[in-house]
Structure formats: structure tokens, C-alpha cells
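Researcher: Sequence recovery benchmark, item below. Answer with residues only.
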């Protein structure tokens, strides 16, 4: 077992192959997919992620119990990241927050490309929560689904 876990919300062969190709010094774990038929995976809205938050949070809590020293989630919207930090002592990081920190280290302002208006609203809430609203130059919508994004690489 390595020290860091990358948490993917659902098993996706393409994402798994991509993560493995990076030769990360991390284990890739999956949250138990919600069994309810009305849960949309991959998540497209804050509501979609609210339906799977218990599974995400339980996977992170379990990762800490198994001895992982940190967890990085695999979703730019960082669902559950702030919430689960109340329950674990290990660092829990989301790529959205990480990306914003790196962006402001590299430049004065940054922009974000998102696939839909719903996701734009979701990401903007995170931008505000992380304290980067004054550093955000723009958010552009490309009118695509998360599946389109995932299947484009």
C-alpha cells in the first residue's frame, strides 16, 4: 500500500488506464457506486453529487482507517472534499482546489473551462469558498457533458 489514495467516484476503464499511465505513487480506489437508479454518474450538477456524498465520504474515511496519509479526489468539482475534512485527520484534496492554487502561483488571474451552466455555478461556488473570486478572470462554457470530456482524451 502506498501513502496516497486517488479516489474515483465510479469505476471507469478509461480513467483507470489514464491514471495508471501517470505512474503515480498512489493507489487508485473507487467509492462504492450509488445503487439508486436516479443517481447520475458522472455527476453533472451539485445535486448529482449530493446523491453520492455518503459513498464518497465513507470511502475517504475508510482510506484513512486503512492507513493512507492523504486522499486526492478525481473530480474538478471537489464534491465532499470540504465536508469530509471534518471527519478525518489526513489531508483530503480536490483537483479543483489544487488547480486554483497552482494557477494563482503561476499568474495574476486564471480562467476555467466548464462543460455546462450547471457545472459553472457549482465551480463558481468553489472558487468563492476557496477565496479565489478576485483571481478568477473568466469561466467559459463549451456545452458538453462530463462524458464528452472524459471520452475526449
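Model:
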Amino acid at each position: 500500500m502506498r501513502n496516497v489514495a486517488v479516489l474515483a467516484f465510479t469505476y471507469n476503464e478509461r480513467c483507470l488506464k489514464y491514471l495508471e499511465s501517470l505512474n503515480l505513487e498512489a493507489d487508485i480506489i473507487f467509492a462504492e457506486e450509488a445503487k439508486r437508479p436516479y443517481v447520475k454518474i458522472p455527476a453533472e450538477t451539485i445535486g448529482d453529487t449530493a446523491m453520492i456524498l455518503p459513498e464518497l465520504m465513507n470511502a475517504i474515511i475508510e482510506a484513512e482507517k486503512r492507513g493512507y496519509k492523504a486522499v486526492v479526489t478525481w473530480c474538478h468539482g471537489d464534491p465532499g472534499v470540504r465536508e469530509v475534512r471534518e471527519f478525518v485527520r489526513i489531508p483530503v484534496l480536490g483537483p479543483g482546489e489544487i488547480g486554483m492554487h497552482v494557477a494563482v502561483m503561476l499568474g495574476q488571474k486564471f480562467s476555467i473551462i466548464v462543460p455546462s451552466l450547471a457545472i459553472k455555478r457549482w465551480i463558481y461556488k468553489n472558487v468563492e469558498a476557496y477565496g479565489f473570486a478576485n483571481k478568477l478572470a473568466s469561466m467559459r462554457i463549451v456545452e458538453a457533458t462530463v462524458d464528452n470530456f472524459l471520452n475526449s482524451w
